[in-house]
Inverse folding.
């Protein structure tokens, strides 16, 4: 089995089907398989990012109690381990889970789920999966107060499993990345690293905004290909791009996998990584993403480069990075 690292995986878009069934059963509910698919995963005729983002409403409705969050995290991590993942950074927006919980309680429940998984993992054969969490600020109008709270919670749980921040949500002029400068200024002062979604629904200008906020990692960033001078800058600055092929096909950034420029970006010396984004919404997983790229000619040495890029970009301790590098040699 390949050893894999996912740096860009949204918790609410990756709740395993089996876990959803369990959570529904707990409430005495069930849904026919076809309905479940319709509510959780995009159909091939999904037109854009906004339609894609609609698929989060149903899973989020099941993610409003500490008990459910804890179970989801434990089961998702077990599934990822079964797929060969040795390290994952899982992101979520605590403010999306606050029907009954505070943002801090949400984060605590997620960390408890990780503890449950680690306790289970102790008895298992094979390579361990370690996981950290990134808290998403939401790129939505009217969320400033909730976003400040997320920032404070990230500081509170820093070094306890919360490894960084993200900026996520729709990408458009109204919520341009440049409007979030004060949050990332504060994050830098508190020593919290971050990544920013950019260059997905919008093009190079959104990525330049993200770079101006001081980010060293960009979620997606695939549309840098529209601007050669930006490509050069990203390569020179060693900015990591968290690419997610199936997700970009779903949101119609690309029409077919043959157009997906992952390999040519490696050739441009861009620090590219391969990730899933939303396993359940996109009906994918990381082994499948690699398989898709292998079908496009991804070589063993390119694959190794992707792994090394992920290790380098991870918001993990040096000790953890050393473990990941040693695993590659094993
Ligand atoms: Zn994402």
């Amino acid at each position: 089995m390949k050893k894999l690292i996912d740096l860009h995986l949204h918790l609410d878009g990756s709740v395993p089907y089996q876990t959803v069934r369990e959570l529904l059963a707990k409430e005495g509910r069930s849904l026919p398989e076809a309905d479940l698919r319709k509510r959780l995963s995009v159909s091939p005729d999904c037109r854009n990012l906004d339609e894609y983002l609609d698929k989060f409403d149903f899973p989020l409705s099941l993610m409003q109690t500490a008990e459910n969050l804890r179970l989801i995290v434990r089961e998702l991590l077990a599934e990822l381990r079964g797929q060969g993942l040795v390290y994952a950074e899982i992101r979520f927006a605590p403010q999306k889970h606050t029907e009954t919980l505070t943002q801090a309680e949400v984060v605590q429940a997620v960390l408890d789920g990780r503890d449950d998984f680690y306790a289970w993992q102790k008895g298992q054969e094979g390579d361990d999966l370690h996981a950290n969490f990134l808290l998403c600020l939401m790129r939505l109008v009217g969320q400033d107060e909730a976003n400040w709270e997320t920032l404070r919670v990230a500081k509170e749980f820093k070094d306890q499993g919360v490894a960084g921040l993200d900026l996520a949500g729709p990408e458009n002029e109204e919520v341009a990345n440049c409007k979030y400068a004060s949050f990332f200024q504060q994050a830098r002062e508190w020593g919290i690293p971050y990544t920013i979604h950019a260059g997905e629904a919008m093009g190079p200008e959104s990525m330049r905004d993200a770079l101006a906020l001081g980010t060293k990692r960009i979620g997606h960033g695939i549309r840098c290909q529209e601007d050669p001078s930006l490509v050069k800058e990203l390569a020179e600055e060693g900015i990591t791009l968290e690419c997610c092929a199936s997700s970009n096909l779903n949101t119609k950034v690309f029409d077919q996998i043959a157009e997906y420029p992952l390999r040519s970006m490696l050739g441009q010396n861009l620090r590219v990584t391969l990730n899933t984004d939303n396993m359940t919404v996109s009906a994918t997983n990381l082994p499948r993403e690699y398989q898709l790229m292998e079908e496009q000619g991804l070589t063993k040495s390119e694959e190794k480069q992707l792994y090394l890029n992920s290790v380098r970009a991870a918001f993990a301790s040096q000790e953890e990075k050393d473990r990941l590098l040693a695993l590659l040699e094993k």
About this structure: The CA atoms of residues 225 and 231 lie 7 Å apart. The mean pLDDT is 96.
